[in-house]
Design a protein that fits this description.
By secondary structure, this protein is mainly alpha-helical. The chain has 2 domains: 230 residues, no CATH class; 89 residues, no CATH class. Helices cover 59% and strands 5% of the residues. The chain is built from 18 helices and 4 strands. The protein has a 4-stranded antiparallel beta sheet. Helix 4 crosses helix 8 and helix 8 crosses helix 12. The longest helix is centred in the middle third of the chain and has 27 residues.
């Protein structure tokens, strides 16, 4: 049972279980029960999936801005907008507080799908971009805020106020890769199409298809491409200080010289290496782009420098012994190549 000692393996089993539950969960709990669990999940589980067990908070937020803002402004009764928004946000926060940003790294179906694509790309021998440059990361980081403000709130609000046609009432859902991915996994290709009913729908559907294909292609060479611009990551960042799960750091003088944690991070968070060095007191470094996947803790060679804590109790801590085992396991895993295996097999058969 050595796999139980590998946090990444445990996390991927959790991801697989949650993927099956969120994509096909209503088959188990029933459609009506699934519909009542929550409409404000802090991860990308899509309502377009007819078998899903839950759906993400971005769907009702767009719906409320689209259908409630205009009537609220027209009637002067802002409670028509305020109460539904508060209900969605409170439900979102009730779940978010439990796991914090681990909803991204452990629960999200699209996050797991991207990791699987990255593993496939790696084993096929495709070139892997281990990390982006600091400049590229700095340019990408604001995109998630633009997605949240523009697609989830801005365009639906303008639609509700009559500045845009109704097609722009839920623009993020129209381009979200999870909408196509989850429905395809249920055997339906009805979301993978170009809608020519109106020019706006045609633009949105083309963008959605393109973004889905781009996510697959990029995920095979780059770690977590869509996660970097996901509006839910931005929502998580807004509330990360109230979550019960945290990434904490107790720095040493070695921290700015090692850098292994930043290299291991799938989101290229260089601040893991540079922030809070030589600070004896453990500090919360659950940064805006962090998904609490725990890889930085796994690949930290110094005892207790990095920890994942829950209710301020350490649940997983960096240690030299774990680091050595994890590094060796990673080396062995990286040696396994499907393309290389097939080549060696052919070469063996060709021998006299």
């Amino acid at each position: 049972m050595m796999w139980l000692k590998n946090l990444t393996v445990v996390r991927r089993f959790v991801q697989l279980f949650m993927f099956v539950f969120l994509v096909y969960g209503s088959v188990v709990v029933g459609f009506y029960a699934a519909d009542k669990i929550s409409g404000a999940l802090p991860s990308l589980s899509c309502a377009y999936d007819s078998m899903n067990a839950d759906y993400c908070a971005l769907i009702p937020l767009q719906h409320q801005m689209h259908h409630r803002l205009g009537p609220a402004v027209e009637s002067g009764d802002m409670m028509k907008l305020f109460m539904p928004l508060v209900t969605t946000l409170v439900t979102f926060l009730m779940m978010f507080v439990l796991l914090n940003k681990a909803f991204c790294g452990w629960i999200c179906p699209l996050g797991f799908f991207q990791e699987v694509m990255q593993l496939i790309g790696q084993k096929l021998g495709l070139r892997k971009v281990d990390s982006l440059s600091h400049g590229a990361v700095d340019k990408i980081r604001p995109v998630k805020w633009l997605m949240l403000g523009g697609l989830v709130f801005g365009l639906p609000a303008l639609t509700s106020l009559g500045f845009l046609s109704d097609e722009w009432g839920d623009p993020f859902c129209q381009i979200c890769p999870s909408r196509i991915m989850t429905t395809l996994f249920t055997g339906s290709d009805e979301q993978l199409f170009v809608d020519t009913s109106t020019p706006s729908y045609m633009v949105l559907s083309i963008l959605g298809d393109f973004l889905f294909g781009l996510t697959i292609a990029m995920a095979m060479t780059l770690r977590q491409p869509f996660c970097r611009i996901c509006p839910l990551l931005a929502m998580h960042a807004l509330f990360r200080k109230i979550g019960l799960a945290r990434l904490v750091k107790k720095g040493t003088s070695r921290c700015d010289k090692c850098g292994i944690c930043a290299e291991a991070c799938p989101m290229d968070i260089r601040e893991l290496q540079t922030d809070h060095n030589a600070v004896e007191k453990a500090r919360d470094i659950t940064l805006p782009d962090c998904t609490l996947c725990g890889r930085c803790v796994e690949f930290c060679p110094d005892k207790d420098v990095l920890q994942i804590r829950y209710l301020n109790v350490p649940v997983f801590s960096a240690s030299p012994q774990y680091f050595k085992r994890r590094k060796n396991a990673q080396i062995q895993w990286d040696k396994v190549k499907l393309v290389g295996f097939s080549h060696s097999k052919k070469a063996t058969k060709a021998k006299p």
